[in-house]
């Protein structure tokens, strides 16, 4: 730490590709996860703890960020954001939610600008020197089964799969919601805004916020995948305004998967219930077919570990209230 030097093998990563969704032949549908030195990760945890203590002590991270923070989660993000959505809907009967998608967010963070952000957050001295060295001259190779690519130099981004990477990323985008008027909420790079949608001035205000976000992205060398940015119109009085990012009109959707939970424009939970039911039932069927001795000692741990998570993830947020949905669950 005193020297600020990082061993070269700590800066090498074997990258494995984790499938997300969509066409399996499309490389963009895989998430690159960096497997790095175990000893290096131990030091990263020490650095991370030091930085987190500084950020929390000085209240430097925006409350709108729920990702990779203590006592924050997908659940707190959903509950806090949709409390505003429901309140606006109850009073105005019209809400627009815009879901934003960063293009390769973790991979695009420019190192020099990141160091400037760290300094602005008071992260200086030996810690900053160590991070600068940790980011410089990084190398990675892709590993699939027994095949390995050649080593390639990494010139931007924070490593996904590292201990420090997520924290550095949320510091980098911490000021994205500066001067944003609409309600905004973030879980790492998953960002969404909402506003009432009754008058033309409502649409104009939300559109201006989108312009501000685009300006921020241009300034800090990030970009949005506009084709994947969507708008969800909620409410019977909704004017169903169009919104633009650059020259593109955002796609209107009837439902949106938000941190794993399906949000319908009618704010009903039948599709989420059906999805959770089908996933849990599929896993339960797999267990039933492959374990012939169905003793409680075997089945209960399997059910608890593999089935219940599909039924209970963020259920405090979407818990069904209709009898047919409750019976299905």
UniProtKB/TrEMBL annotation:
**Which InterPro entries does this chain map to?**
DNA/RNA_pol_sf, RT_dom
Protein name per UniProt = RNA-directed DNA polymerase from mobile element jockey-like
Q: Which PANTHER family match?
A: REVERSE TRANSCRIPTASE DOMAIN-CONTAINING PROTEIN
Residue span(s) of domain Reverse transcriptase? 1-263
Q: Name one GO molecular function term.
A: RNA-directed DNA polymerase activity
> Which UniProt keywords are given for this protein, alphabetically ordered?
Nucleotidyltransferase, RNA-directed DNA polymerase, Transferase
Q: Does the keyword Nucleotidyltransferase apply?
A: yes
Q: Which Pfam families match?
A: RVT_1
